[in-house]
């Protein structure tokens, strides 16, 4: 088991507590995917992946269809993806992925969270290099020989594969391998339960319980923001 396994194990305890948050984020993903590649999932691989993810969080089908229809309306604002970088207290690097229709609002909000929690909002490139940008896929474990599957999927970029008792088989690969892996899994007729992207810290830092509380205070403020899609950091999660 490598870094991807440990990273996922830690983050599983940090899933969005409110289902509505997950629905909001998927809705934004749908808008961006439709604006970029059209409303037909068969011809839009990004949209296809998002619809799979909507099923994984039990988002009702009518919500997905409504979001796709809304995205085709030319008056619907598009969302711009913006990456924020900075430091929490005690030297913990933070990477924040956002999707916003108002850049000024998002910048002001993110800056205020860092200021209020004794953090520092950094410049572009200040911490991104500390994280590996990866993609991941989850498929059912039934009927799969994980060792054989790993050998076959290496050619498509998969670097780490492991079985999870709750989640089936998980594969991790570099960010740029997403399209090739998605295409190959679909060609094999394998059901993709979910897929996505992660930024795995290359080095993590262990803190005292008091220091963890300081960092968690900032993370909670950031994660509550509606423009925030994902938050990654270098703190060890127990």
Layout of helices and strands, plus pairs?
Layout lengths: L2 H9 L7 H19 L7 H12 L4 H12 L7 E9 L3 E9 L2 H14 L3 E2 L9 E9 L6 H8 L6 E5 L3 E7 L3 H10 L6 E8 L7 H16 L3 E6 L5
Antiparallel strand pairs: 1-2, 1-3, 2-8, 4-6, 4-7, 5-6
Question: How would you describe this structure in keywords?
Answer:
transcription regulation; 23% strand; 8 helices; alpha+beta; Transcrip_reg_TACO1-like_dom3; 4-stranded antiparallel sheet; YebC-like; globular
Overview of the molecule:
Belongs to the TACO1 family. Its main location: cytoplasm. Keywords: Cytoplasm, DNA-binding, Transcription, Transcription regulation. With 238 residues, the chain is α+β, with helices and mostly antiparallel strands. The protein has helices at residues 3-11, 19-37, 45-56, 61-72, 103-116, 146-153, 178-187, 209-224, and strands at 80-88, 92-100, 120-121, 131-139, 160-164, 168-174, 194-201, 228-233. A hairpin with a 3-residue loop joins strand 1 and strand 2 (92-100). The radius of gyration is 18 Å and the shape is globular. The protein starts with a helix and ends in a 5-residue tail after the last strand.
What is the first-to-last residue Cα distance?
17 Å
Please state the overall shape, judged from the principal axes of the Cα atoms.
globular
What average pLDDT do the residues reach? Answer: 91
State the major sheet: 4 strands, antiparallel
Q: SS-based structural class? A: alpha+beta
């Amino acid at each position: 088991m490598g870094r991807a396994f440990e990273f996922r194990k830690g983050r599983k305890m940090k899933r969005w507590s409110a289902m509505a948050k997950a629905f909001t984020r998927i809705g934004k993903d749908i808008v961006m995917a439709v604006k970029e590649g059209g409303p037909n999932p068969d011809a839009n691989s990004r949209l296809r992946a998002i619809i799979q993810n909507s099923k994984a969080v039990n988002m009702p089908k009518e919500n997905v269809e409504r979001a796709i229809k809304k995205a085709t309306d030319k008056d619907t604002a598009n969302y711009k993806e913006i990456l924020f970088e900075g430091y929490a207290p005690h030297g913990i690097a933070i990477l924040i992925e956002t999707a916003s229709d108002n850049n000024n609002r998002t910048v002001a909000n993110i800056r205020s969270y860092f200021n209020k929690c004794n953090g520092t909002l950094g410049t572009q490139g200040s911490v991104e290099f500390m994280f590996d940008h990866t993609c991941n896929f989850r498929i059912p474990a039934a009927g799969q020989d994980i060792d054989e599957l790993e050998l076959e999927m290496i050619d498509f970029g998969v670097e780490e594969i492991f079985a999870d008792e709750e989640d089936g088989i998980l594969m991790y690969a570099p960010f740029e391998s997403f399209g090739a892996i998605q295409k190959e899994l679909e060609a094999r007729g394998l059901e993709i339960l979910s897929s996505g992207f992660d930024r795995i810290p290359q080095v993590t830092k262990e803190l005292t319980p008091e220091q963890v509380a300081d960092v968690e205070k900032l993370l909670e403020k950031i994660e509550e923001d509606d423009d925030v899609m994902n938050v990654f950091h270098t703190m060890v999660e127990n």
